[in-house]
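Late entry, written up from scratch paper. The run itself happened at the end of the previous shift, but nothing got recorded in the book at the time, so transcribing now.
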Amino acid sequence: MSADNTAFAERYAVAWCSGEPVLVAAFFADEGWLSINGGEPAVGREAIAAVARDFMEAFPDLVVSFDGLEERDDRLLFHWTLTGTHTGPGGTGNAVRFSGHESWRLDAEGLIAESLGHYDEAEYRRQLEQGQAPDR
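Output as recorded:
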């Protein structure tokens, strides 16, 4: 694993914690894209910033922890854990903690050209409605 890739992943997690959606989008190529759980891709930095903004507004205390990075064929898997309290607009007030990963393909400049994000959406929805399980 390249130290440069690990440092990139660490900075990416910090960007998610910054409250500044454009900092997340800056890790993507101009026409890079992000798809979460097989949904419609957000294409381009403006659209990616909008996705980040939605999470940051929903969870004003958002923390994304970098859990690890692994190489898989021509991709990097960025493993993360998100914690926060759903106190943004329409929020439930419940705390959540869930993990997932993004499968990245980097371009020649070392920016994210493609990101396929995945997390357990059913568990996420359960935590939004009921809060974290006590043992988490």
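The beta strands are 28-36, 42-43, 63-72, 75-85, 95-106, 112-119.
(Scratch paper discarded after transcription.)
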